[in-house]
Amino acid sequence: MLVSNKEAPWLLLTFTLPAKRASDRVKVWRKLQRYGAVPLGNSGYLLPNNPANRERFEWLATAIRKYAGEASVVNVQSIDNLSTPQLVGRFAEARAREYQELIRELQKLSSVPRHKRAPGHLSRFRGRFREIVEIDFFNSPLQKRVEELLARADTSLTPAKEPAKLNPRAYTGRFWVTRPRPGIDRSASAWLIRRFIDKKARFIFAPEEHVPREGVPFDMFHGGFGHRGEDCTFETLQKSFRVRDHKVSVIGQMIHDADLLDEKFGRKEGFGIDEVLKGWAKKGVSDKELLERGIELIAAIYHSLS
Fold first, then answer.
1. Backbone angles phi, psi at 162, to 5 degrees
2. What is the pLDDT of residues 231-264, one digit of tens each?
3. Which of 8, 31, 158, 250 has its CA 20 to 30 A from that of 190?
């Protein structure tokens, strides 16, 4: 159903171009890609209705007419055979594909030795990230994942000093500090710390710039125990403290695949745990309770392994 209603949630661009204007058709298609528009069958291209998107469509319609084509920008209240969640899902799928492509590129970058990395590559990835965010109309959860990878890639461009051999006794009875809203890597790391490294560990949450001086940071973007090379934080802690336990290694593989999304070990179990944690987070569970529940989940996985 098409209506002339300023409050309509969608904008539809319909157009035709002469067959001989192939190069102009490519120009139009590229602009639609940059705008984040999704195709609606043979009807045209759809965008959420806001002033910026209306201006983009109107200017593009003007350009199409200059190419000897016909174009209209129509307010759309609803689509008969597609519900609002289905329409939103199409935009979400399009952005997810773009974020996932960027994630793969950033993971490739992490496997390149530091001295061979070109800072210009990271600038290009940041630029591409900003472009995707601008058309991420419904806030894909992958946006945060790319932000984390960019922050870690930025840090890793600075050559890291070889860590000194750890004295495990220096890490007992400590405050362990991580970022708010813990996910699977931080929850699993907290379980590993309490189970094998510091049985009296106390966990607190703080932003990067307010880590207490006496605290031991983990899974922070700067300093402490975090991602190193191709390892997630859980793997970094396991190797740093020489935790030699077969079941811990299996759990590490689960956490790695769910956190880094690179399918290195081909394990899927961690994705289910991650979704449960995300669900609790959306329900407003406190950081402390979220971490404790995550620790219990990992403990249960550990005891289930043979």
1. -65, 125
2. 899 999 999 999 999 999 999 999 998 888 777 8
3. 158
